[in-house]
Amino acid sequence: MDALSQFLLLATAAFGAGVLNAIAGGGTFLTFPALVYTGVPPIAANATSALAVSPGYLGSTLGFRPELAAQPRSLLVREMLICAVGGVAGALLLLVTPAKVFEGVVPWLLLFATALFALGPSIARWAGSADGGASPLWRNVGLAVVAVYGGYFNGGLGILLMALYLLVGVTQLNTVNALKNLNSFVLSVLSVVAFAIGGAIVWKQALLMAVFATFGGFAGARLAKRLPVAWVRAIVIVTGLAMSVLFFMRSSAG
């Protein structure tokens, strides 16, 4: 693949990821495979993809400033620290994972993330109807586990965080989204820092994709008001399944 074709593929994937993340999530299903297809090794592709989509989390967090301001400062600080540590731990786990092992795990991670995305509304309804009010200890433990997963592989992170907060008794959906966005931003930034220190990020591709993902996020915010979310969800699910199949075939062939 020549340089122009790579540029167009990565820019398009990043722009599409920004649009999808702004409307329904699932941008990782575009950025990660595009990087692998252009020759970036899977571990580096995962780290680079994490950086590419991270700017969108900041915008989403700023959009929920009133909801975050209404939360106890001590709670926000504690959960940010948990997510920071968990995100770094997940990133370090990725960095020490042998390349061959990660290549074998990738199809399953993609399939798991796709299943999470597909079942997201059902999970949210079930969690919302469950008897919440779990102890702070279980809330912290659950958040730490999700943060490690998010630092290791970003796909499906938002759905896991939303389900966790609903399960532990957070009843206001805007508050759930605010906490989800804040903690996604914190763990993503810290995991990206760990990836950068570990030398796992391919900077040229990462910066290019971050710019186009940001543009896609702006476009997605406008489309969100016009495009039926069900259509976008269907596109994301089909894309996730297709990418899972392709990576299973790639793993088998290897």
TrEMBL record:
PANTHER family registered for this protein in UniProt: MEMBRANE TRANSPORTER PROTEIN YFCA-RELATED (PTHR30269:SF0), TRANSMEMBRANE PROTEIN YFCA (PTHR30269)
UniProt-recorded name of the protein: Probable membrane transporter protein
Domain of life: Bacteria
Keywords: Cell membrane, Membrane, Transmembrane, Transmembrane helix, Transport
Transmembrane segments annotated in the record for this chain: 75-96, 108-128, 140-165, 185-202, 207-224, 230-249
Protein species of origin: Ottowia flava
Pfam families according to UniProt: TauE (PF01925)
Principal place of residence: membrane
InterPro entries xrefs: TM_pro_TauE-like, TSUP
Protein family membership: Belongs to the 4-toluene sulfonate uptake permease (TSUP) (TC 2.A.102) family.
